[in-house]
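Q: How would the structure tokens look for this protein?
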Amino acid sequence: MTDSVDSLGRRFRGESVGRALDLVGERWTLLILREAFFGVRRYGQFVRNLTIPRPTLSARLKSLVDAGLLQRVPYAEDRDEYRLTAAGLELFPAIVILMKWGDKYVPDGDGPAVVLEHSVCGQVGDAYVACRCCGEEITAHNVKAYSGSEA
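A: Here is the predicted structure in token form.
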């Protein structure tokens, strides 16, 4: 019994989903990242595409820069644009999976707002989580979880 209690305590202390959500779990933050994945880089573009209040956008961009997910890059005198860092780019699968889930379970009457076409094969991309070793799709039914200290 002690092992499971200790394991549970460690899981909640080191809970990576909670830490990630503390950083990117706010609605505007995820929408800013989505726009950045699709090529938006400039402050005015974010405002126009998202209809986000300017103070909110400024605060979210600052937090994303501070967290190392975006970087500010000068493109003209006194003008910066925001580019995804390597850490920011690694969130792409999470955004795509959220898009796919939203299209399926919270659909818009007009169909998906964005369809992703795989540039290599030209087909509509159907994202899923897969094992890097064997390539099989990973689902809630074919994995088991154990303490990271056991890895």
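The mean pLDDT is 88.

The radius of gyration is 19 Å.

Upvote if useful.
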